[in-house]
Each structure stands twice: as C-alpha cells, then as structure tokens.
Known about the structure:
Elements: H1 3-9, E1 25-34, E2 37-51, E3 58-65, E4 68-75, E5 81-88, H2 117-141
Antiparallel strand pairs: 1-2, 1-5, 2-3, 3-4
Amino acid sequence: MNPIIREITAHQVRKDLSPFKVGDGVRVHTKVREGDKERVQVYAGIVIARKGTGIAETFTVRRLSYGEGVERVFPVNSPNIEKVEIERESQPMRARLYYLRKRTGKAAMAIKEKDRGAEIHAQHEAEKAAKAAAKAAPAAAS
C-alpha cells in the first residue's frame, strides 16, 4: 500500500477488534438501521478468508442456513461492526478455506480445532508448582 495513503488512513484503522484468523468460528455483531431505529444483528459462521491490508481489509464469513451455504464479506474497519466474538479457534492448513464450499452438512463446518490440551496441562502444572512453592516457603522461614 502507498505510504501516503497508509499515513492518511492510519487513524481510521480499528485496533479494538479481537485478533481472529482464518478458520475461527466467529460471531459478528453488526449494526442494522431500519428506518429511524438501530439494532444489533449477529452473524455467526467460520472465517474462510481475510483479504487486503490497512483500511481496505475484509474478511469472509460462511455459515449454513437451512442447508444452504451463505457467505458474507465484512470490512474489518467498518463502523457498522460492533464487535467480533471468537467462538472457537482452529488450526487450518490453508490461508483460504474455499474448499468448504463443496461440503455439505457437518462436514462443511469441520476444521481441525486448536488442541488446547497441552496448554491446559501446562497451566495445571504451573498451579501445582506454585502451591508447592507456597507450602515450602513457610517451612523454610522457620
């Protein structure tokens, strides 16, 4: 991107959105205006692509609606996006998940989820070590 354009649009780039990636299951909260009223509508699905940089960055979310695949492209920096919640993290082996378009049913949502077992195990080990250190500290002080 041109450095001049990047400098001009730098203050418009959002930094408050949670960092999500391709393959994550997300819930996108968008503002919808109907007449003079405004409400928040949620669109949940899997991020199958992220494109662009800076102010022009977009992401595509795919979901199944009544057995039919529906995709919607959202600009990352849109003021109409209130927030993006990450429902589940995954570890895709691709930058774009367009192969999900050929799948139907549960297979269309099947992506290798991030293995959190090792992370949880390490957390438990750290807690055990902290408890052991806490027990040993009063004994050493005596």
